Records
---
Amino acid sequence: MCKEMCSEKIINLAKAMIKVQKIVRPAMKDKVNSFTQSRYATLNSVMEACSEALINAGIWVTQYPVPVEGDGKLLGLVTKLVHAESGEWQESLIVMPLAKADPQAYGSAMTYARRYGLSAMVGLLTEDDDGNMASQGSVSGTRNQNLPERTTPRIASLKPRKDQFVNNSSQNGVLENLPHIDGINYQQNKAQDGALYITATGNTRNKNGILKEAGFKWNASRKLWWKAA
């Protein structure tokens, strides 16, 4: 039995969250932190990765600030999951330090806390690439044109190892089972957690229907088609 951080029972909520975690996909790293020159997943990317799965499972998500003890330079944020049908709920509290006590620092810390609070509650895979951003009071980074573009969710590094990629001639049969489409190239990528992802690149225009039938999803922020292997 939980005390204060969840309802008396969470059986239905737990069952629903198991369904969510079976299908939720990793958050895309869609921004570059100008302080560390590393990529990270924004709040929009985190929401995009899990919101549909949560809604389909009948789970309502709410996040709101709460007062916390301190010297006025702390932000408390509650992330709460509610199973709509049963009313069962579970919540967590994250406390973030503010760079300074002003609206800009508050807003930056709020966004940072919402992203990590939601990721932790859902079990979403992300990396802590922008830890310095909130502490420095920077709301967002700017893209470094010299950094190579990431083509799949959560590739381990900006300079991938050779064993992270599998070309079309791979003997594992995964790519060979995909439909042959003129102008489309498939590439299999390995994420940090060991999961495999396939991207479809090239001349994808007017081929949305075929790609969707093959199980690919379009990511607007990255402008690519991808699917779990």
Note: The beta strands are 31-33, 38-40, 59-66, 74-83, 89-97, 165-166, 184-190, 196-202, 217-219, 224-228.
---
Amino acid sequence: MISAGGAGTGIPGGLPYRPWAADLQKMRAAEGGLNDPDGLCLPQGLLQYHVDPQPLKIVQTPTQILIIYESNYGLRTIYMDGRSLPPLGQAQPFWHGYSVGRWDGDTLVVESNNFRGVDPNEIHGVEPASFHGVGWLDHRGSPYTEAMTVTERFRRVNYGRLDIEFTVDDPKAYTKPFTVSVVQQIVPDGSELIEFICHENQMFLKLTGRERR
């Protein structure tokens, strides 16, 4: 299981950060989420979407699966037509990555790469402004780079419960792959997603003195 705050919950010793990634996570956490993409009206990291309290909708077609997140109006396209993942760097880096999926029995296996992440070579004691809102795996600021590959295994164990096994392999940010588990519950009353227009009456940037004019 994972808490809404950090991906390391339940992992003995926490996440296997490389030294630069551990330092960046500490800097981000010390700022109290000042540059979390959620507060900056930017697309979130995949794991952030999975643990946020806002609902999501999954739309299945023969060749694609779309996941629509109410939070920050996130939209993912998962290609189900048998294509392979493009090599790292071949596809344009996406906020939500490039995703392909396949069925393994009753489990949907989704592999994603070519994420827009941070570059550890650009860190010189402080987090550069170009990193703000970029490469946040969780709300504690655990970073990821463009080398990250994510494997998700979605399994609907009963009518009301969806189990997600989330594995991160990012050799630039972590010393080894790691896996966390997320449990999601169905919204039983049939509620529909509502519009999430983040910049409408957005107060966080105003209160932190960074309102865009």
Note: Helices lie at 19-30, 46-51, 204-207.
---
Amino acid sequence: MDARVTENIQQHRFELPITGQSFAVAYYTLQDGKVVLIHTEVPSEFSGQGIASRLAQGTFELLRKTGRKAVLKCPFMSHFFAKHPDYADVVDG
């Protein structure tokens, strides 16, 4: 899997393709011009393979590239950020 994270604006989520129809996703809402990350999902059959971490990294990189800030309400995204403080420029709250 060498896919990249993309943003699905219509469904308010960041997506990482896994296989044909399977995606890991990070859902968000917009609040005061910030991207509020609220929930991360990886299909159970792909659990434990580091896919959620790749999704988080790709999401933060995409936000950095587009100059946006994230508010972390999702426990997984908060946990990932705690281990990767180099994304402090992207996280706002």
Note: The chain has a mean pLDDT of 94.
---
Amino acid sequence: MVAVRPTFHAPALLAKQAANIDHISNGRLSLNVVSSWWEQEARMYGVNFEKHDDRYARTSEWLDVLNGVWTEPKFSYSGKYYSVENTVLEPKPVRKPRPTLYAGGESEAAKNLIALKCDAYVMHGDSPEYLAAKVADMRERRERFGLPPMQFGVAGYAIVRETEAEARRELAHITDVKQSASGFANLPAMAERDTA
């Protein structure tokens, strides 16, 4: 599974790269489509960082282009964010109709987009009861769109420290992702510490 950000990758070019990787892997490629959440990262890489719902509108168009060039013999598209003209992509991906598209998100915009245009909903680890409610919600959204059942994935992490208390402190530190959080401000130091 390769994480891709629509704000960082032109959709038709990414579709071509992904189709080639899908052939190399004999149809085992899947993508995790991330609608960008970290403004500072976008600035670091010279990428425009739009407001929340605009990022999901961009992702929606990005997915339209990606799917179109993967499935149509010749594809054209003209939208607010992307435009392609008579695009021919060959070879098409091995997996039909396309590699599995995963995405995650908590907002209404995110969940509706994922239910409508992706194949799988990915979640971060949480209690089984909390995850069950998310799965039920996404199943209901998918049914509302008249689409087949989607897949679900849960990210799992292992925190290894000398003591349980240290592990719990680290968990609290890394799960506080609000941009105002001290852990968020310390991301460069955290990355340096984890590679040491």
Note: The chain is about 45% helix and 15% strand.
